[in-house]
Amino acid sequence: MGQFSFDNRYCNPDKEKPQIGYLCSYTPIEIIVAAGLQPIKLNTRDEAIKQADGYTHNTMCAYVRQILDIALEGSYDQLAGVIFVNSCDAMRRLHDLWRYYIKTGFTHIIELPRDDTVSKRAFYIKELNTFAQKLEERFSLKITDDNLWGAIRLINQTRRLLLELSRLREGNHYSLRASEIFPIMLASTKSDPARFNEELERYLEEIRKDLSMQDKTRQPRVLITGSIIDRGDIIELMEDFGLSIVAEDLCTGLRGIGQLVAERDDPWEALAERYLERAPCARMKGLEQRLKFIYQLIGDYRVNGVISYSLKFCDPELMFYPFLKADLENKAIPHLHLEGDGTTASLGQLKTRIQAFIEMLTKG
Predict the structure, then answer these.
(1) What is d(CA 275, CA 124) in angstroms, rounded to the nearest whole number?
(2) Which of 247, 248, 288, 321 is least buried, going by the fewest C-beta atoms within 10 A?
């Protein structure tokens, strides 16, 4: 794909707007955009923990400890606020530590139901309204329905374009590497949405002009599922080991962008519907819905095998994997489970296992 280039100048936030950090893909970023603020996804780095283990137990989720470590250095002091979601025990503890030790001016945690019922959706709509009211009070602004619809349409367009980019891997017409697609997905979470959409549309037009090129690769096609992966270097290293990653059941991948907000009726109801009905992560109820999404990806992207990557001490994903493993075995789908701390060093230690898995898929 070397002849096509995504202009990284468009992968930047609007620095004229106050920046609001967030961590979870269940964060309703449409409300942040509707408020005239810039959402910024907080990402980890490929380094060992320096300070965070002095503030929380070292058996806490590696993602949470990495984010806390970066925050303790003051790297997030420029943020106007940080939004948390009550998604797991580790994230709740990070919120507690953040309020006490980190000097970000505004913090808020959104309560997220674990499934979608009439009463829980009504509760969640109230949570969304409370979040909007907190932003209005803090930044002296007003979020109107018109503002919210504008933000919904803007973010929906981002998701449409990212899905179109990803779906180019479904067929045989072009060999798209995950290490080229995944950084663009990550860039969408911290860029000015309007400028990002403009550049991604241009990029896709370049690719559409040459869809006659055939996929010549012979590598087995692999789906990756599991805990958050929020850096492109991890995906690139997996490819260097010989994997051909064609789909990502990740909160930073297709699981996070795979459903649009319905542009009809009440915007708050539409937002609640989208976030409660989207492909779920392991903390949600309804394992069958998660499995259904994974098998849809397996079929659409012609997957030969599945790799589950779990962060150490990521309790929800580690609890989900045995169910996934049993179901994959029942369907005779090859799979491999990997566990690491989110650094390339921990992944590098698993190189032999990955290569053995690839060899098994190739022989099969």
Answers:
(1) 10
(2) 288
